[in-house]
Amino acid sequence: MRNIFVSVLLMIVTFQVMAQGVSFEAKVSKRSLGLNERLRVDFVMNENGDDFTPPTFSGFRIVGGPNQSISNSWVNGKKSFSKTYTYFLTPTQKGALSINQATIDIDGEIYKTTPVKITVTEAVDVPRDPNSPEYLIDDNLHLVAETSNTRPYLNEAITVVYKLYFRSPLRISDGRLVENPQYADFWSHNIDIPQLKVENATYKGETYNVVVWKKSVLYPQKTGKLALEPLSLSLVIDLPSNRRDFFGNRILQQSSRTITAGRRTIIVKPLPKKGKPANFMGAVGQFNFDVLTNKNALKATESFEIKLKVNGNGNLKLFNLPKLVLPNTLEVFEPEHRENVKTILSGMQGNIQDNYTVVPRFQGKYPIPPVSFSYFDPKKEKYFTLRSSEHIVDVYGGPVAKNSSDNSSNFGAKQPLSNTDESFRFIKLNPNLEPIVKKKFWNSKLFYASLISPIMLLIAFVLLMQRNQRISDDVEGSRLRAANRLSKKYLGEAKKNLKNKTLFYDALERALYNYLKAMLKIKADDFSKQKITEILADRKLTGEEIQPFIVLLENCEVARYSPASDAKMQQDFDQALSVISNIDKKL
Prior knowledge:
The protein has 4 domains: 20-121, Sandwich (Immunoglobulin-like), CATH 2.60.40; 133-268; 285-409, Immunoglobulin-like; 475-586, Up-down Bundle (Four Helix Bundle (Hemerythrin (Met), subunit A)). By secondary structure, it is of the alpha+beta class. It is built from 8 helices and 30 strands. 24% of the residues lie in helices and 39% in strands. Strands 11, 12, 14, 15 and 16 form a 5-stranded antiparallel sheet that branches.
């Protein structure tokens, strides 16, 4: 009976241990949040692990972390262990986002978390404590979209200027665009701002600092109520805290905030029907119109140009010029369209033109009839029609067309061409074509290549399988190569994050530990600076050669809690490369 009791007890304990197992999961503070809220993500494991790799956090920006915490407890004689990596994130876009998988190495096994779905909505009103320093942000920071005209006509230019107003005690230390309006129902053009400048301005009767963040010129393409999508910025703000330094100066603290200009509605009026000309092509603005010719006299079969040109201010890129109608005895080619238009804050200005190439076949005097061009002036709210003057082109030295006495009225009748016309003499009528000989596949180069290629592929496959078998049999070599790959990976991550102190030193520290893990073939649990010093000394390295490595590890630990400049991070990265190179030579 005693043996049976002991066996049953052992089975129960074994099942409990198996049921507990290893867990590694991602926990979030909320599944849905606004664009201006923060999200906390905890990666929790119940066994101590190594080589923790966080996800890329696509769609989010890291504003805090990683913070590491370890908990050990005993309850009724049972040990409980928990290790947590914590990140604080702020979303950079709206929609359905995902916290992807994180990985950890626990006792030689790789564990992964399950992806977590997050829904990001519009910015929400978050109540704040008036006693908190961050409460100052609400009264001293504003993002405003200023429009030149909220009730324009169809195709009338309006400007939208996004201005960021802020005042003391706030200071903006960093800012970037989170959400950019697309202007779906407008033709749009963004005005380049070479450099953001801080100027003084008045907002609601108060003096503010202002930064012009974006300028856009819009031409509405639909009538009715059109919405301007909001522009959102992610800002890092310095604001005073309640603490003071040794000299009595107030200590500044940083806060991240996403601010939105809000939606604006534009009511677009249709162009009036009263007085609308029949030849109106959609031009809106203030324009001049002219028809020009480069020759007034020429020989038959020579060419000349007729230019239809419109210049002024308005929607120059959004309408077509009128068509040129000429007598059938003039050969007219498709026009070449040219634009010389620049867009400034008030709208488009410049000129557009259609250049027609015309070739007369017969001699005579040809009239270029007047051409009409109509446009709508939104300032005067009235249509105008411009009419060009008539031109006469004298053609000589060619055959005389039938009914030549009435060239001016010959706009529709077909005219017979002279037999002496040599316009198409360049076409070769006897090309001397040769038949295509069909090549045989048998005994060709392609035949032998098709015959030999399967044998070569089989040999290459066998060699590749043998190589893979040798690699898989070399267990120790595989561990060494894996650790070397991790070291290079983290060094690469450190180099990419030279502008981010937290990510840089985290990657640099992991690269150093993985390098030693590969070169000295020791486990992560054995790591300590004292242990590393002893092992390197056993490998015949002197204290002067070991000390730079230990100092570099200490720099990585200290840098997490103290500020570090870009130059300092670059110096530590170069020092890491030098230290690894020196140890390589000794080992």
